[in-house]
Amino acid sequence: MEVLIGLEIHEQINTKSKLYCDCPTNYRDVSPNTNVCEICTGCPGAKPMPPNQDALDAVIAISLMLDCEVLTNRPVYIQRKHYDYPDLPSGYQRTSLPIGINGKVNGTRIREVHMEEDPGQYDPVSGIVDYNRSGVPLVEITTEPDLRSPEEARLFLRALYRILDFSGKAREEPGTLRVDANISMAGGARVEIKNINSVKGVYRALKYEITRQKSLLTRGEAVRRETRAYLESQMITVPMRTKELEADYRYIPDPDIFPLVIDSNKVEAIKASLPEAPHMREKRLIQQYGIAPLHAKVLTSELALADLFEAVAKKIDPKIAALWLRDKLKNVLNYYGIRCAESLLIPEHMIELLKLVQSGSITPETGEKLLQRMVKEPVSPLKLVEELKLTKIVEEKLLEEAITKAIAQNPQAVKDYLSGKSEALNFLMGRVMKITQSRADSKVVIQLLKQKLKR
Amino acid sequence: MEQIKSRKLTAIENTEAALARIKNLNPKINAFIELNEKGALDTAKWIDEKIKQGKKVGKLAGLIVAVKSNINVTGLHITCASKTLEDYVGTFDAAVVQRIKSEDGIIIGMTNMDEFAAGSSGETSAWGPTDNPSALGHIPGGSSSGSAAAVAVGICDLAIGSDTGGSIRNPASHCGIVGLKPTYGLVPRHGLIDLAMSLDQIGPMARDVYGCALLLEVIAGYNPRECTTLKVDLKDFTKKVGADIKGLKIGIAPQYEEVTVDKKIYQKIERAIEILKDLGARVVQVNLPNLKRALPAYYLINYVEFFSATRRFDGRRYGKRIEDVCGEEVLRRILLGSYISQKEYRGKYYHKAIKTRSVIKHETLEAFKQADVLISPTVPKLPHKFGAKLTPFEMYGYDLFTVPTNLSGICAGVVPVGKIDGIPIGLQIQGKPLDELTIFKIMEAYEKSTRELS
Amino acid sequence: MKREEIEKRGEELIKEFSEAIADVKEEVETYYVSELVNVVRIDSEPVQKKDFKDKMLKIAPSVDEEGNIRVEIGKWVG
Q1: What local confidence, expressed as pLDDT, does residue A23 receive?
Q2: FRET pair for A229, CA 20 to 30 Å: which of A99, A209, A419, B276?
Q3: Spatial separation of the C-alpha atoms in residues A69 and A113, rounded to whole Å
Q4: Chains touching B by CB (3 or more pairs below 8 Å)
Q5: How far is B344 from chain C (nearest CA, A)?
């Protein structure tokens, strides 16, 4: 059965102040209803401040990065979209007419790009509202119904997010994503799923919805046109049963805000200063630094990681830098479950660390351990090495002692090795590394072990 | 005010006297629905202290200012005379209120009005109607009914009102005071609770032209914190009024007389024009063939914008859902606004009205190519008595002369030109965009000449 | 007056109004009286309004101890 999926994606723009007032945008860092004023809570009589120019420029830049045509030299009205929902303080959301149209990402057509204001946060379970988020600028991106499966939707969203990340205009904190998905199957009506907050959520919501619609259709029942909510906790969709279903938004140009007219010269200027698109950067990294395509792909999965790589590659052999960032750093980030942008690692420290490893002052194993700390606190690895005395053991005597100790403590492994099980040697090496706190050169240890056990 | 600055009268004395008059007269007139007794006295004390210490005081030092109940003042009930907002306490000062406060005006209280400013009679307040102190038993006009009545009866020195389709000028005319609807964008709207955002303006009301010009001087001017104020050099209205009006071209349209219901009103206007001619003004004929279309266009736009503006009154933050508690006219406008802005009907009604607005605006500005001002009655008929039952259409009829000003975004002043059967009649003078000064000049010249006569 | 009656009479009013402007030929739509465009502001250091929260919460019909506004529970989760 053919499935048509279209997405509507909302992402926050990283301005300092809100779109129509000068309240701060760091709504996550403060207690409920702190970053608010009469404007963003829609108090009677409050008038919007003039729109935040930087938010508009960001939406233009994002439109260009999505290969959209930017609509210039005509009035872009800020429209009032009326609907009744607890998070919406004025009973309408201000949303611009399209700023970009007809774009493309990974073969999926982008229909329109708009500038919007974020509503507040409403928790339907407890019935509470916090307006800290209300008025944060948003870019709204709608696709044509070009996606054919949850998997395609997932791949598209990842590609889209990589672009938004590389635009440098989106908020860096995770979880700012919000997606509404439209899905229709042959023989059924279009269903809209709201409230999806992650790529994984989109995948699961679509999977659930396809199964639900398929079983209705095979039973000969109708798939009704409706709006459903995705319940993350239960991984299901449920009907919203709100009046919003038959919503006629009664759009009118907001009489309190004059229209925006985007100048084509301005678009050219933004285009000229546009950050490099991720796929272009991926290509350039391969050409410029001679690194493996696979490495380049991982390094350009995130803007912060690509920036870190290029900063480090100025001082360190790029191939070594690529290897370390792709393997060791990625491992550490995955372990903590964070993105590179969230880590506290700075290029100078990474360079210091790799220099320590290259000069042989510390072992790669020590380097990896240090990395675990450097991601969480901005500490100089040089200082750490001095403080914790982590330099590589070069004195043969100390190594001898550690090896003797390891052999004495592990008679079974020794026996195994001597009877021909070569993997026992690795086990013994591990014991030596443990005794020396990874400060021994593993290659030297293997050699010494082999010599010792031959006798 | 000279009395206050020269210390013949202290601000405290002026405030106490005003409060005493309010307590005496307000039960009969119902002009105020919220008093700021303590705040007013504290401010007065502070002003007297400043004067005593020889410090500089503001332009309004010690003057008693009344504020319409749809303009935010921190800490006071800003109800729009509606049950919807009976528990709403202003969380901020409107830009005009900030300006009044910083010029040492004393805000005495919030005035009565038609509910949400959606009326022309002053009868639709949830706090009951305001009486017309100049013609008791008759409506004071609306929607700035309390502000006009308070000024007329002398329980405040100055008042601010709002004018979307005549709400300053209509009650100014009926109550026999001076009022002005400024050019759209001259006075900040931040803090003014919406009726129709593309038409609303805050403006001054006073017993004389000087007071009106003084208050406008204080409240007018660019506000970078909102979008729709204009970047203009403020004219010194009070210094420049009084100049002569020789050679000024007064535009009269034949349609003005045609649509005036009470012909006696038009006779008064003609007499006023004669006086202005004696003072050196010239009369030119202009043509306004679309005058009658202004009213329907105005109401259709008003319905849609008002519907939009009232969506926030959903009961979640201010206690009551507007549709559950509001009066008939407010409900009518919400329902009709919702109806005509639907996808299905918007082209036929809303867009048509927006197009008609282009026609009206164009026609008005064309007339100003021949005339410096346009002179007409303020209202086409005399105010009705309380108890008379008017259809919505009859009620809207009061706004015939006033709505074109708002649709065109221009300015207009009203000055009293006598009485008919004891009921005051106001002359409306519409001016070019940002040409408030010419209006003041004419009003002042008229006022002076009639003062000399009497 | 009942809501239905207001609506019904209102529709007559609307009809009358639209007839009065039906022959207007104009195609230009005037949403704003001034013809200004691009009234914008540059993003600047934000300002936190310290005393606003209390004023807002004082008016709200229902709030919780953390400073959230209490409203209805979502019908689809209830």
Answers
A1: 98
A2: A99
A3: 10
A4: A, C
A5: 14
